[in-house]
Fold this sequence. Notes:
Elements: E1 14-21, H1 24-34, E2 38-45, E3 48-57, E4 66-71, E5 84-93, H2 97-106, E6 112-115, E7 121-126, E8 132-138, H3 142-145, E9 156-164, H4 170-176, E10 181-186, E11 189-193, E12 201-206, E13 220-227, H5 230-244, E14 252-253, E15 258-263, E16 269-274, H6 302-308
Parallel strand pairs: 1-4, 5-8, 9-12, 13-16
Antiparallel strand pairs: 1-13, 2-3, 3-4, 5-9, 6-7, 7-8, 10-11, 11-12, 14-15, 15-16
Amino acid sequence: xxxxxxxxxxxxxxxxxxxxxxxxxxxxxxxxxxxxxxxxxxxxxxxxxxxxxxxxxxxxxxxxxxxxxxxxxxxxxxxxxxxxxxxxxxxxxxxxxxxxxxxxxxxxxxxxxxxxxxxxxxxxxxxxxxxxxxxxxxxxxxxxxxxxxxxxxxxxxxxxxxxxxxxxxxxxxxxxxxxxxxxxxxxxxxxxxxxxxxxxxxxxxxxxxxxxxxxxxxxxxxxxxxxxxxxxxxxxxxxxxxxxxxxxxxxxxxxxxxxxxxxxxxxxxxxxxxxxxxxxxxxxxxxxxxxxxxxxxxxxxxxxxxxxxxxxx
Length: 313
């Protein structure tokens, strides 16, 4: 049987995950220096432009490979609880977990081997702010295998795990609106798959009557799901409103994507983000993430913001 062409994965699944951090430089050393992700955009939080918003992913910042960090200085540590993303798993090539355990240990990052509820070996650890991460082995697609450094490189998002009290209407939204299929259940965990490429998997873990968490450092602010374009996003909004009676925000243009947000029935903050225009819309692909990029409405404040923002190499 021919290997599926993951380069043609449909515009569904995960787009990106955004975590809250305290120190942008410390996080950059971890995500770029230790994990080897490429910083594909150096910008600011549009709602709080005195704070960095940095995006990491593959060389192009392709949807499904992106993890972004919101740097809220002096932020209190968050508390993980029910109704939150409790683990973000990244894909690495088959046979590389041992190498990664040695790399993490050499960088003084505590890690441990474990298994997912569905039997996949995991290497579990956390970023410097406490965001829970894991590495899971996956087969490389042809584009990744052609890269000279791809033998061990992180290939993007694999799976996010959401803690929920019980199975609820989130299941219907995942399948009817967000393009996932319910494929299996193991104990109290349900697995959903949109496709077999980066960002194609999601797990709901039912934990019963547990306490809600508290947003802060080391917690996931939101998870964004893919829409092919504005028209596709609009159709997804119509389904949310008419079939599921879900209130959504107005579309927000973020230069590299257009997003809408809504609170899922399970309590997690979801976004739907367009695949385009992408991170190369305002700088060459081979220079992604090097210079501070600002939206047009903040350009007149560039000098002010450069004096406010901490140094970032």
